Amino acid sequence: MEEVLKINRPFYERYSQLDEREEFWNLLLTPLRQSIRINTLKAPLDYIKARLEERYELEPIPWVKEGFFINTQEFGNMMEYSLGLVFPQEASSMIPPVVLDPKPGELVLDMAAAPGAKTTQLAQLMKNDGCIIANDMKKWRVNVLIANLNRFGVLNTRVTVKDGVYFKRFENTFDKVLLDAPCSSVGMIRKSFKFLNDWSMRKVIMYSNIQKKLILAAYKALKPGGILVYSTCTVDPFENEEIVDYLLRKTDAKLERIDLPLKSTPPVLEFGGKKYSEEVKKCLRLHPQDNNTEAFFVAKIRKP
Amino acid sequence: MNKKVKKRLIEQYGYAPDLVFEVKPNRRVYAYKPCSFNPRAYTEKGIYFGKIESDGIRLTIEGAFLVGPKAKKNIIEVSKEEAKLWLAGMDLKINKELNGWIILKWGEYYLGCGKAKGGTIKNYVPKERRINLK
Q1: Is B89 exposed, middle or buried (0-12, 13-18, 19+ CB in 10 A)?
Q2: Nearest Cα to A269, choosing from A278, A260, A282?
Q3: Chain A residue nearest residue B20, CA to CA
Q4: I need a labelling partner for A72 at 20 to 30 A (CA). Which of A84, B10, B118, B127 fits?
Q5: What are phi and psi of A174, to 5 degrees?
Q6: What is the pTM for the complete model shown?
Q7: Are A210 and A238 a contacting pair, CB within 8 Å?
């Protein structure tokens, strides 16, 4: 805690109102366990898993059957990495595609897709069939996305470079939309203290405003009966519950419960002088200590 | 061009996957599946599948994974040790009378394409895909 205070006092003051538990602060600063996702687009899951188990210890990630914790961070000598058979991906970041559950043949929008871990996971769930529009607004980030799609053998994706708001013109078009929104990245502190140094309330408010525009555009682009998954890797209610509450107030969106085998922290109904709809209880709020992962927030939204 | 690529693949490997192929001016071949949605914006599409060389199509690792499982010719199985050496960027010695572009595989892992000539398979694994041998 002292360490956080020293680096960024406003950060500590804000989030100690959110979670006072000591393990929240301990886990927030503890390096992450390495995890991977096996690429079933190129070879069968059991076959790759068996080959990996000859050299590494794998522990299944309970909420995604292709995901495993692995006892190495050395990918430079791993054949499976070279061949695009595994994707190093944080365990909690595998949740949004699982919740979205895209099917082969569907039309899916991945609104803020770079660097592409979740896009490749969507393609895998769709068995490379149907169509994904993978968008990101920054050209340099898109280059990383394209490299990852290539390495993973993704054939059903078109990449666009647009502000996500652009897609609101395609009203009632997509079967599924994933909005893994740009955010203040508190969850990423476990990867790099840069995110703790860089955090400021001004940025939280800036991201919150961007997220509101994006979620409205994402919802507009969704077909009636379709599913929108909104996710962030941050803990701030202004970027999570507030965004979902805003969508519920502005549209006819309905929230659905997320049923996965993991522990979670109850969503926030009141914070920083703001109150949110009881409906946001259906969202999934993950703090680092819940499952020893990055912090994450996921909402599953249906368009009636 | 699409038909030409498929014809060449069938000639070379005995199989062509049912994909759309696009040949860029640098002779690189990109492969993708059709998508009826038009985002009314510039799109990047397809994976780098291979390159048209003067004597055939050289498949990338991704191309080898798409063609390899159903290839009927010009494909050889290597040992685990040879697979490691290959992915580290080494040429391989072979005792077969092979010539031209060959897909290499180890079990269900497809290792890309090499050029067989005079008892050696020349390595084409790009530097950024090579493994460190420890």
Answers
A1: middle
A2: A278
A3: A155
A4: B127
A5: -95, 140
A6: 0.97
A7: no
Residue stretches of chain A with pLDDT short of 70: none
Does residue B128 sit at the A interface (CB-CB below 8 Å)? Answer: no
A290: amino acid identity, one letter: D
| A163 marked ligand binding residue | yes
> C-alpha distances in angstroms, A114 versus A135, A141, B9?
8, 6, 33
Helices (H) then strands (E): counts for chain A: 12, 14
Query: pLDDT digits over A144-169, tens only?
Result: 999 999 999 999 999 999 999 999 99
> Quick one: closest CA in A to B109, which residue?
A43
**What b/e readout covers A111-148, taking b as 16+ CB neighbours within 10 angstroms?**
bbbbbbbbbbbbbbbbebebbbbbbbbeeebbbebbeb
B107·A131 Cβ contact <8 A: no
| Position B1 confidence tier, pLDDT thresholds 50, 70, 90 | low
Residue numbers in A near B83 (CB within 8 A): 79
Q: What CA–CA distance (Å, rounded) separates A114 from A120?
A: 10
Of B19, B43, B83, Cβ closest to residue A158: B43
Q: Which residue is associated with the tokens 């301990």?
A: A26
Range list of β-strands (E), A71-203: 86-88, 107-110, 131-135, 157-160, 174-180
Chain A residues inside the 8 Å CB shell of B125: 82
Would you name the residues of A annotated as active-site residues? 233
A159 and chain B: CB distance < 8 Å anywhere? Answer: yes
Q: Which percentage of chain B shows pLDDT scores above 90? A: 93
Quick one: which H or E segment has residue A224?
strand A222-232
Report d(CA A145, CA A116) in Å as an integer.
Answer: 5
How many Å apart are CA A106 and CA A129, to the nearest integer?
8
Whole-angstrom distance, CA of residue A265 vs CA of residue B87: 45
Q: How far apart are CA A265 and CA A135, in angstroms?
A: 31
The neighbouring-strand residues paired with B104 are: B76
A contact residues 196-235, partner B, Cβ 8 Å cutoff: none
